[in-house]
Automatic annotation (TrEMBL):
InterPro entries per record: D-isomer_2_OHA_DH_cat_dom, D-isomer_DH_CS, D-isomer_DH_CS1, D-isomer_DH_NAD-bd, D-LDH-like, NAD(P)-bd_dom_sf
Molecular functions per Gene Ontology: D-lactate dehydrogenase (NAD+) activity; NAD binding
Protein origin, superkingdom: Bacteria
Domain D-isomer specific 2-hydroxyacid dehydrogenase NAD-binding stretches: 111-297
Residues covered by the D-isomer specific 2-hydroxyacid dehydrogenase catalytic domain: 3-324
Keywords: NAD, Oxidoreductase
Coiled-coil intervals, chain numbering: none
Keyword NAD: yes
Native species: Actinoplanes teichomyceticus
Protein's UniProt keywords contain Magnesium: no
Record family assignment: Belongs to the D-isomer specific 2-hydroxyacid dehydrogenase family.
CDD domains reported in the protein's UniProt record: LDH_like_2
Protein name stated in the entry: D-lactate dehydrogenase
Amino acid sequence: MRVAVFSTKPYDSRFLSEANHEAGHELTFLEPRLTPDTASLAVGCDAVCAFVNDDLGAPVLERLATAGVRMVALRSAGYNHVDLGAARRLGLAVTRVPGYSPYAVAEHCAGLVLALNRRIHRAYNRVREHNFALNGLLGFDLHGRTVGVVGTGKIGVCFIRIMAGFGCRVLATDPYPAREAIEAGATYVPLETLLAESDVVTLHCPLTPETHHLIDESRIAMMREGVMLINTSRGALVDTAAVIRGLMSGRIGHLGLDVYEEEAALFFEDLSDQVLSDDLFTRLVSFPNVLITGHQAFFTEDALRNIAASTIGSLTAYGRDGSTAGIAPDALVH
Ligand code: NAI
């Protein structure tokens, strides 16, 4: 297959090239994000390989189909950014990487919880300035606290196991309860109960029309005073403006984000010499009790190796006649 790889970073080309060694696909690594303006770079290719902030709305898919592209291979688990109706109409196969490393995301999430609780991000800066005072660094024992996990798929279950290891009481909510979550010690409750009883609330459900702004003003009002809210899933699960109001009022005592509603304009690029025009984001980073990472939860060697292997596997399995029968069922989005 001739494949246009969009949003390529050095680590993408390294791991994809290694995985492609025997498969022998013709990979063209492109630095730009996939947008209506860059879609023409895929002319002459059979497939595009895209990441989380590439634009896969109907106009882009139409341009890709016109350019001769027949397949979209996502290097991500989430596929909320793809207009699946348009893909179906245009006969484009769409694949994703179903579970490349739930540990990578769950462990990063645990890192955010620990860093926020014990103010490690602040302590790091203090010690570098020879400020060894402890005022303002007071944390709490995680042991015995209640952690609420929204979404108990692969990542949620990993995170439950980690928190159970800390001796936390774990509450969970999911329209499809998982045996593994219960075996790991979680108790399923309705979302409202989870929000009312949890000291830490963490989101691990996908972004869908139903979960858009799942955490809004009214849900924040249901949470415990001083709650820790963590989102490593997708930015638009939370209403950022409402969360800022929650931080201002003290209802939200700690906020850990690896994803942000408007991250497409920011994340994965070095913008350190630019003035950011995103008021909500600059506001968020100004809070001492907010810790933001730029969509790096997936970013481990193990995950990148698995992403590359799964992506190349899907490209190889796609039949010359357009058949998707050989593609792993959980990798095939439609
Ligand atoms: P998964 O598909 O294994 O699990 C998602 C779970 O959420 C399912 O059990 C589903 O039933 C549940 N769910 C759906 N709607 C819900 C709702 N309204 N309330 C509660 N639960 C609901 O997905 P996985 O692999 O665990 O990933 C979860 C999410 O993490 C992905 O959708 C993706 O957005 C995000 N992600 C973020 C990464 C990062 O680097 N920050 C990397 C990989 C995934």
